[in-house]
Write a structure and sequence with these properties.
Layout (H helix, E strand, L loop, with lengths): L4 H14 L8 E3 L17 E7 L3 E2 L7 E7 L2 E10 L3 H16 L2 E5 L10 E15 L2 E14 L5 E13 L4 H31 L14 E6 L1
Parallel strand pairs: 1-5, 2-6, 2-7, 3-7, 4-7, 9-10
Antiparallel strand pairs: 4-5, 7-8, 8-9
Helix pairs in contact: 2-3
Length: 225
Amino acid sequence: MKLSATMILLVSLAALLLSGCAIPNRQYYTLNYVSSPIQNRRFEEPYPFVIRIKEFSIEEAYNRNQIVYRLNPFQLQYYVYRHWAVRPTRMITDLIDKHLVSSNLVSATVRRFDEGRTPDYQLSGSIEALEEYDSEDLTFAHMAMRIYLSRISDGRTIYSRRFSLRRRVYQQEAEFVIRELSNILEYIMTMALEDIDAQLAEEFGIISAGETDIAQPDNSITGSD
């Protein structure tokens, strides 16, 4: 008696499982960090402003649950069994929201315009890279993003900066890549909020225009360890 293709497949899978060669389970990861306070604040109290945090956008190549690793500037790969536990855009926006709230920089944050309090500013951004970078026998965590702060009343962008940071990972396990990506995001947001503190001080009238020492719009921070 001939076995059907389905029966052959089922028998093969059963034999594989009985032999102890089980299919690997998916592993799920999330970015996480404890935020650092803003250094040398211009104003000790929270600014009487409300900031709306818009969900960040992301480059299409990274807009998936599979974790990305890069072999060279021209080739991307996607891990089969290593996934983000939450969509990257939601995960990073949530962390940015928590960081801004914990900084006590402004009186309130909202995610939607219909949350009850009318926002004065909007914080938005775009994620350009979120990846493991493998170069020969070295492994790096790499994140790049742009951050914007816009005034709601006239739509003017009053702050814009690009960050691109790469840090070496000395242990090969995926957990250590995720830790370094978390550290990079914490550093980016700490730097951005220090800039935004200075910008809001000017908006609030604490300092005059031109007295801030923040980067001009579209200036970038890049680095590699």
